Amino acid sequence: MVEKIYVTYNDVHKLCQEAAPKILASFKPQLIIAIGGGGYVPARILRSFLKQPSSPNIPIQAIGLSLYEQLPVADPANAGTGVVDQIGTKVTRTQWLDLSSLGEIQNLVGKRILIVDEVDDTRTTLEYAVKELEKDVEEARQKLGPNAEKTEFSIFVLHNKDKKKKGVLPSHMMEESRYLAARTIGDEWICYPWEATDIEAHDELARKQLNGNGAA
Known about the structure:
Blueprint lengths: L3 E3 L2 H18 L4 E6 L3 H11 L9 E13 L10 E13 L3 H4 L9 E9 L3 H21 L7 E10 L9 H5 L3 E7 L3 E3 L7 H13 L5
Parallel strand pairs: 1-8, 2-3, 2-5, 5-6, 6-7
Antiparallel strand pairs: 3-4
Helix pairs in contact: 1-2
């Protein structure tokens, strides 16, 4: 049986607070792109810790990517539990950059952009996000001329699962330490608070897990 890990909003807050100085020391992002829906809350919390005195808040953009597809429960005996999430094989773009606020894609050229998601599981979603964003921005950069600065992307996730990945991130990103996971864990089932329909029950399971008084 896959072990479940219950993560609270307080846990997320502390992980972002812990990671922020490392991000500021190595990257100093000028724009945050949150991958929905798991990246929204960490991105907003992280922005508070990345804000520098006398500087404006870092803008946050959102993109939506879907890798999970709902499939019926295979065993009829479990039909009462509804549907279960299965990891898909194809990333679907459900939402992309809001150019009405960015102005135009050229405004991202030469910027330092931080991509935020909650978990690096198979890495398929992160690979897609990085490739597509790099492609879009590079096309815009080439239109500006050969002397236009290149855009740098980095990644922050709350949890990285220590497992064989299906997706691949650019080697230069990894070599230049532009990938940061607040925690690396095993291949457990992570239950985030924004997925809970009963937050008090969720937090109680997290407390039991922390105290070792119950299976979580």
